[in-house]
Automatic annotation (TrEMBL):
<keyword id="KW-0560">Oxidoreductase</keyword>
<dbReference type="InterPro" id="IPR020904">
    <property type="entry name" value="Sc_DH/Rdtase_CS"/>
</dbReference>
<comment type="similarity">
    <text>Belongs to the short-chain dehydrogenases/reductases (SDR) family.</text>
</comment>
<dbReference type="InterPro" id="IPR002347">
    <property type="entry name" value="SDR_fam"/>
</dbReference>
<dbReference type="Pfam" id="PF13561">
    <property type="entry name" value="adh_short_C2"/>
</dbReference>
<protein>
    <submittedName>
        <fullName>SDR family oxidoreductase</fullName>
    </submittedName>
</protein>
<dbReference type="InterPro" id="IPR036291">
    <property type="entry name" value="NAD(P)-bd_dom_sf"/>
</dbReference>
Amino acid sequence: MASTLSGKTALVTGSSRGIGRATALGLAREGALVAVHYGRDQQAAQQTVDLIKKDGGRAFAVGAQLGAPGAIDQLFHQLEAGLREHTGKTVLNVLVNNAAATTPTGGAPEEMSAEQMDEIFAVNAKAPFLLVQRALGLIPDGGRIINISSAVTRRAVPSQVVYAMSKGALDQLTLHFARHLAPRQITVNSVLPGITDNGGAVFQIPEAREQMARLSAFKRLGEPEEVAHVVVFLATDRARWITGASLDATGGSLLG
């Protein structure tokens, strides 16, 4: 097993499937102990943990429904207990804010309710801020914070305006915390995925796949592992000179 992250620890929110799962697997392959977070699907999170262990890595699951009252306390109680059990310490080297609430596809902006908007911002913007704020007590100098943003912050998709607004707020978190934490050599970056096949129902429809694939310069859908490779790179010492950046991982979908 590779060892660029040997002795390091990581928390990946929303890592029961898709990009989050691929990121957790990638970090573990590099030697990190990974806390696999889930919101509702404990079984899927345990599957991620089992895949990591089968691959020779180390992981444990933590559950909390981000955006709900008390979720941050609940998550960090489990996280600190798991870190202490596996390492004897409560040190977190890498935080990946991946969990997200999405907007329904195909809906017009005027159909979005205030309650739906509140939920999306609670998960996509408020929770990452609170997670960073709380994690700073555990993250040592030289740590890594990586936020999974979205290509829709750079490309107009009217049906996704609220989701894009929330991810735009996440990019601002990246920018300002990168400056704030630079004295501690903690890097903070965003990764912007394009359309990535996460196994959802829409990706089982051939016509939809073909239409989505046209957006990429490579004329295909992205794979979770391709985005995860970018995240893992940012988590390593090789990326120590990158901070406050938004890395395009869209397969050229923003080229026009």
